[in-house]
Amino acid sequence: MPRPLQLLITLTGFCFSVFCAAELPRIVSENGKHALFVDGSPYLILGAQANNSSNYPAALKDVWPTINSIHANTLEINVAWEQIEPTEGTFDFSYLDTLIKEARQHNVKLVLLWFATWKNNAPHYAPAWVKLNNERFPRVITENGKQLNSLSPIHASTLEADKKAFAALMTHLKKIDKKHTVIMVQVQNEPGTYGAARDYSKSANTLFNSEVPTQLRSAMHLPAGNWPDLFGADASEFFHAYHIARYCNEVAAAGKAVYPIPMNVNVALRNPFNPGKPGAYASGGATDNVLAIWQAAAPAIDMISPDIYFRDYATATKVIELYSGPSNPLFVAEIGNDQPYARYFFSALGAQAIGFAPFGMDTTGYSNFPLGAKTYDSSTFAPFAEIYRLMKPLEHKWAELSFTKDVWGVAEPTDTHQQNLDLGLWDAEVSYGRPMFWTDPPQGNTPPSGGALIAKLDDNEFLVTALRARVTFTSSSEIATKPYMLVRVEEGYFDKRGKWVFERVWNGDQTDWGLNFDDKPHLLKVKLSTY
Ligand code: DGJ
Predict the structure, then answer these.
(1) Residue nearest ligand 1's atom 11 by CA
(2) How far apart are CA 379 and CA 384, in angstroms?
(3) Residue 10 has what pLDDT?
(4) Cα separation of 348 and 346, whole Å?
(5) In the Cβ-directed half-sphere of 250, how many Cα atoms lie within 13 Å?
(6) Is the domain of 226 the same as that of 321?
(7) Are residues 109 and 183 in contact, defined by beta-carbon separation less than 8 angstroms?
(8) What are phi and psi of 134, to 5 degrees?
(9) Lowest mean pLDDT among 19-28, 98-107, 220-229
(10) Quick check: is 286 in a domain?
(11) Does the predicted TM-score (pTM) go above 0.85?
């Protein structure tokens, strides 16, 4: 039996009551699938993240033009602990007030990034009264007794101070954001520690040699024992991961106790094929080897979100695989803003992503090359703009289909120019870099930039869109003995109520050699049959 909520979405395709607009944003998970509900309907984050120091009213004028020009519907932007609580106990939310007002003027939703105890391992964004007080807020100590610029997660004094500030932020947000312009909050930024696997201070060593907490042991079905007993060579990293996860959980829970909207944590990834040692990557962050620890220790965190700065197809798609699935809604919280990364949008949506956000998307004058693009202008942002333009008329419908139906998404690979998808009764072949007419073999686009999305509407009907790709439907082995055909290929779009609007039928040249997509937006409904 469909649940009432699902029925509502299915029947109307769209929630238009005043009641829906009052609903808090939330993550809904059903049958191993996830959706981010915003204003009562599934929402796809066509996101973009601003640069690190764009979190002041004066900088926002260099943020909105990029967000608007790439057709993003959501801006990810930081709120720093140092700016809201410069003096302990005295809060200033003027930046937040301006940000929300301007976001509404630009018709853009927000994901706030809480830069506090950790910003890429360090407390750079914590107020001076925190980062200059080692005694009250101790840093991580290495095995050799060296002090690192990364706060230790084991001290209640640090946690309590961060929690208080975060709860104050959420209290203010609840008061001023009745329209739910802010749809999610990221707790910390890339938490973890570079330079050591864990804190080796005296108090940390005592904890390390004590019992592993029951919560973790029961989640992982482990007997009693201390960290070295239970985890051997991994003990130091797992210990640090558990304590950072628990810390982030408490911060999130304190915020949710006031105002329960979705919260995520982002990850400075380790290379899944060549991980290296903890400390060389951010130890204790939610890297792929400690996801189970994070999930057990941080139930208040709704999702763990990868920051993808691997340009190559194999690694980027492996990360998408590792951070998606029934136990984790995929949200690509950051991805490099250079051309090669843009097409991974299609792979992410194929893994049922609730959103995607290239990093550094403003014109405040900074380039994080070689992670991202070398220069920042409209041509840099064009590969993202064309994908968001393609998705704009489809954003609500895709979010709904992704939650309720089977969906597929592929990005153009580099080692082959063709991919085969098993769609049930039918198969699809997606190929790249070939003329639209005739059967010349695919040569790939130069540079690789294609991608395709398919959603199954019913057994014999599919919704298809793509960029620089040919999509060819064939019968699967189940019905291979019978001849088959494209019965009708309609081009159209979904209106604001989620109703299909027919524009024209593709036939003749437009279907004889597969469905050929160029760089313009085309959305097709494809009906197949045997005869
Ligand atoms: C990942 C971090 O999360 C971002 O804030 C930023 O520092 C990039 N790395 C590098 O530009």
Answers:
(1) 368
(2) 10
(3) 41
(4) 5
(5) 19
(6) yes
(7) yes
(8) -65, -30
(9) 19-28
(10) yes
(11) yes
Q: How confident is the model at residue 399 (pLDDT cuts 50, 70, 90)?
A: very high
Determine how many CB atoms are found less than 10 A away from the CB of residue 209: 12
pLDDT tens-digit series, residues 72-127: 999 999 999 999 999 999 999 999 999 999 999 999 999 999 999 999 999 999 99
Domain with residue 504: its CATH number is: 2.60.220.20
Distance CA 430, CA 417 (A): 8
State whether 443 and 370 are in the same domain: no
Q: Which residues pair with 186 in a beta bridge?
A: 113, 264
Same domain, 354 and 418: no
Report yes or no on 5 lying in a domain: no
Residues 426-472: tens digit of each pLDDT: 999 999 999 999 999 999 999 999 999 999 999 999 999 999 999 99
Q: What pLDDT score does 476 carry?
A: 83
Among residues 395, 418, 440, which one ends one of the domains? 395
Residue 439 in any domain: the answer is: yes
Co-location of 442 and 327 in the same domain: no
Note whether 360 and 474 are same-domain residues.
Answer: no
309: CA distance to ligand 1 center in Å?
9
**Using CA atoms, how far apart are residues 141 and 197, in angstroms rounded to an integer?**
10
Q: In what order do the strands lie in the sheet with 500-506?
A: 407-411, 451-458, 461-467, 523-530, 484-494, 500-506
pLDDT digits (tens, 9 = 90+) for 267-293: 999 999 999 999 999 999 999 999 999
Residues 256 and 167 in one domain: yes
Ligand 1 neighbours, Cβ below 6 Å, are: 52, 120, 189-190, 307, 334, 359, 368, 371
Domain count of the chain?
Answer: 2
Task: Report the candidate in 148, 327, 141 with the shortest Cα–Cα distance to residue 236.
Answer: 141
17 pLDDT higher than 80: no
- Calculate ∠ Cα 267-269-270, nearest 5°: 150
Domain carrying residue 320:
41-395
Whether 391 and 415 share a structural domain: no
Which of 369, 395, 421 terminates a domain? The answer is 395
Over range 153-158, report the average pLDDT. 98
244-253, 330-339, 370-379: least confidently modelled range:
370-379
Task: Report yes or no on 7 lying in a domain.
Answer: no
- Closest protein CA for atom 10 of ligand 1: 368
Q: Residue 45, SS3? A: strand
Q: Whole-angstrom Cα distance, residue 83 to residue 55?
A: 9
Centroid of ligand 1 to alpha carbon of 369 (angstroms) = 11
Mark whether 386 and 413 lie in a shared domain: no
Query: Which of 78, 121, 359, when mutated, tests ligand 1's pocket best, judged by the most ligand atoms within 8 Å of its CB?
Result: 359
